[in-house]
Each structure stands twice: as structure tokens, then as C-alpha cells.
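Proteins fold reproducibly. Next comes a concrete instance:

***
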Amino acid sequence: MIAKQEKEFEQERRLMVQKQLIPRGITDKRVLEAFTKVPRHKFVPGRCIEEAYGDYPVSIGEGQTISQPYMVALMTQCLEVKENDKVLEIGTGSGYQAAILAELADKVYTTERISGLSKNAQGVLQELGYTNIKLKVRDGSLGWEEFAPYDGIIVTCAAPSAPEPLKKQLKENGRLVIPIGGSFSQTLSVVKKRKGGFSEEDICGCVFVPLIGKYGCKQ
């Protein structure tokens, strides 16, 4: 029965890619392969397992969500991850985005301010055999200077502007993907570092939970 259930989830992953991602413009083959491989249902609470591959966010507790598959894919594609890259994620949450990044990058560092979520994510990631992910509980708006600079930084929560510590921790030619805006509406943006300066490109509207921290939103 368990084997049959896993096969059913595998089919749901393929359908997710075919119906939710490709028709909306996700074209990066490595990203699509990662979404086909990573078992999203492992990252949602048991009571929500039937919703794991739905075209919408799913609650993971603590007032947080696992983002809609398309939004995770879009942000990942915007990051343009290469296989030798070192990537920082702000907002571990369920651990799903970290797993996707781990399929694409050499090393993934991920921070989460809620210890319970970080612990749960670490358990799932270890169960799935990921060895190239390092987790830490901390104020994500400060980044993770110990392992900087990063080829890419992805922020899975919204801030009023791109936090200065994150911009400083980018490598030259690095990319920061972040939702920028207020509590109810934001714009997904890509901040690029070139010759020590920064440019910002708006991608689309979005709605994320706030980035709480010194350089984010205040509690």
C-alpha cells in the first residue's frame, strides 16, 4: 500500500510540473527536473498531505506556509542557480525550497527564526538524504555572514526593501530574489550586483508572510 501511495505521489509531481509549471513559463530544465524529483508531500503536515501538490500555498503551522509550487519554481528559476553555486535561503519554513535548491546548487545555507520549523525541516531533509544543506535558527534579515559571499540569495518572506546585509553578502554578479512590499501586497524582485552596485528588476505581484527581523518587518 505504501509503495502504491508513493507511486501516486510521483504521478502527482509529474502532473504538477506539466499543468502548473510549464504552461506558466517555467522553462529551466534543471528546475523542472528538481520539482519532478523532490517529494513535496514529505514537507507538509500529515493532515494536509492530500493538498501537497495543489496549486496553492499550504499551512505548515506557526502562521507559516509552504508556498504555491509555481511561486517556488518562479523564484528558483529567477535565481539562475548553477551546479557549483553556494546559495543562501532566508526562511527555511518546511524545508521544501531548500531541497529544491540542494538539487541545483553545490551548497545551500538556510536560516529560520522559528526553531520548531527549523527542527522539523532538518528532520525531513536528513530523512531524504540531503547532505549539502546547513540550517541555522537566526534573524534572517542579517543573512549568514560566516559563509558569505553567496552566488545567490533567495528570501521566502517579504521585506519593505532588500536588506543591506543580504546585498553585502552577495558575490559580484550575484542575484537576490525577494518579495518587496507591505503586509498585503508585494512585488517579486530580482536584485543584481554588478561592479559593486545594484539594479532591481520587478517580476510579478505576490503575497508572502513578512520577514521579521532587524532589517525586515518589526513584530
Residues 1 and 7 are 10 Å apart (CA to CA). The longest strand covers residues 170-181. The chain has one domain: 2-206. Residues 2-206 form a domain with the Rossmann fold fold (CATH 3.40.50.150).
